[in-house]
Amino acid sequence: MPATQVAVCGPRNCTETDATNAREVGRLLAEAGITVLCGGGTGVMAAVAEGASAAGGLVIGIRPDSDRERVCHGLSAVLYTNMGEARNAIIIWSADAVIVIGGSWGTLSELALANRRGGVPVISLGGWQIQDAAGNPVTAAIEAPDPKSAVHAVLDTIG
């Protein structure tokens, strides 16, 4: 059976809190033997790659472009899709679970794709809050207060 893969999604222009959370999530996932999927760029992507690789983890970057100069450090392998934001679907459909850290429009698209896919656990750490047209909250992810809780939620939901 292939290794469990968890996508960690977040903005390329993130807060320091988001970066700190992403590093810790990456470290914890690597220590649990989970392969990390990310966009392979700056911000949350670079922070999760840094945390996972420092802990000896496998990190796959799935890039929206073909520019080899724009990848972050800490990646074990890179897939260059040259598909723009459409690569978000590849990240989500390749994951056994998704952790969303922070928020941007690209991150929102990944959250939406994960929910549209169904059957894949989605954990949010400081991410988007979604409402329906009437202003009622929509549960789009399991809310986690910290990196340890986010990774434990993933481990609990995927067995």
UniProtKB/TrEMBL annotation:
GO CC annotation: cytosol
Q: What is this protein called?
A: Dethiobiotin synthetase
| SUPFAM superfamilies assigned | MCP/YpsA-like
Which InterPro entries does its entry note? LDcluster4, LOG_family_nucleotidases
Fetch the Pfam families from UniProt.
LDcluster4
Classify the source by domain of life. Answer: Bacteria
